[in-house]
Amino acid sequence: MFELLLCSIFTILPDYLIRRYRQGKRIGHEITLFSVWYELRFGITACAILTISLISVIFYFHPSSMHVSSFFRTVTILPEKGGRVVEIYVDNDQVVNAGDPLFRIDNRVEREAVAMAEQRIAEIRAQMDVSRADLAVADGNLEQARGAYNQVRDELKVKSDLLSRGTNAVSRREVERLEVSLTTRQGGLNAAEASKTVIETKLESLLPAQLANAQASLRSSEAELSKTVVRAGIKGKVQQFALQNGDFVSPILRPAGILIPEKEEETIFQAGFNQIATQVIKPGVISEVSCASLPFEIIPMVITDVQPVIATGQFRPSDQLLDITERAKAGTFLAKMVPLYPETIATVPLGSKCIANAYTNTHDQLEDPEISSGRWLFLHMVQTVGVVHAILLRVQTMLWPIQSLVFSGH
Hints:
Layout lengths: L1 H9 L1 H11 L13 H4 L1 H21 L2 E6 L5 E3 L5 E6 L6 E2 L4 E5 L2 H57 L7 H55 L2 E3 L4 E4 L8 E2 L7 E5 L7 E5 L12 E6 L7 E8 L26 E7 L14 E6 L3 H4 L6 H35 L3
Antiparallel strand pairs: 1-10, 1-14, 2-9, 3-5, 3-8, 4-7, 5-6, 7-9, 10-13, 11-12, 11-14, 12-13
């Protein structure tokens, strides 16, 4: 309507003035309701052409979007394992820090597992103390066996020497008995050394390995026990938290609530523009946003990034062939924008419904010394008609609260 009124000033109005003051035709006489088309056909036709052209130029070079919002992340409060709630530490709408406990589920089984692991460690350490005592006993037995072996060996050496000289003081039978005794003592010595080696191996390898295994089992049990206390992963505000003692929570069947992280320093607005504006919307383009949560305010923005793909074209393999007619709906391409002045959105809640205008900037092209006159005029016209779209945005901003409060019925 605004474009039509603007164009009529340069088309219908001059045509009427010519008819009225040059040809002497008057409204209600020569110009009636039935003859208005014939009398003002040139102005009406030019007005329609000019209006359509103006609207096309405005909405192509200065596109708008009715789908603008500042998305925010939510974190579902889920336990790592299912169980029945036995203790609750926070209330709904409470602000928590990272690591703060939220609630605890029944942990009797996990506590028993920790106690068993601790008892197993204590048992292995007691076995190590016993093995050290056994090692001392084995050292004593080894010394005793070595002494007995050395005694028989020395006695055998003396008597064998006497027997070789032909003396009658030692009989061959006695020497043979000492040889058998020496073999027996050698076996006892070997057994004592083997017994000591077994105990040393047990102390140095077996029991430490068992102790390490028991300690790993204790750590695993303690980790399972820690899972029974659900903690906040990040700082935020607890929402939809209505747990009661005795409720059963599960990582699959039932979450406990939602944690909304604290607001980030830089708020990013995301707008979905029509695909026809793909060649116009670029990083660095200036835009304006108006939000329902901040009535009668225009927020200046700058586009920082444009999503290189359109969501409706995404493809994921399945067991059915893709029918392109199922993707006939044209999607929008996503542009991300941030406020030029961060303080202007301090009172805008995240997730607010907004509308946006983007404005094509032709200053760099106009500064080209080799630009032609026609293109110079066209680029100036593109810059100028952006004012029309800016006015329309401000009119929408003024009417939005009235439409929402009076005419929507809500």
